[in-house]
Specification:
Elements: H1 4-18, H2 39-43, E1 56-59, E2 86-89, E3 100-106, E4 114-121, E5 127-130
Antiparallel strand pairs: 1-2, 2-3, 3-4, 4-5
Length: 131
Amino acid sequence: MRVSMPIAAGLAFLAAAACKPVSMTPAPEPEPVRRSPSSVATLGIPPGHLPAPGMCRVWVPSQPPGHQAKARSCDRIERTAPAGSWILERPNGDKKDKKMVHVRVVDERRPGVVIQMRVYEIRGDKIVRAG
């Protein structure tokens, strides 16, 4: 009898919770998806955090912008790139090149090993090249 008393109380509680009235208010309309014209927004990188032309920056997608490494020389930057990071590079060439962001994707398991390269326009939501 002592064991069945707590079980009966638990069942009574569940039955009372199941009889709770259901609200029939309609679900709110979802917000429209707004696409920024900037490919940087597609990457999730604020424009102010891109490296200057001629510089590189290691970007870890899981970290907030304020916790990213500072931009620096591109010389041997792969050595410091952790697994799953991106290496952002702004070419220091002609005017057309300065409008591009080169992204080297580092392997998820092997630090410093680049597995993919992409080139984005800074203004305009398109990948120029991927490889």
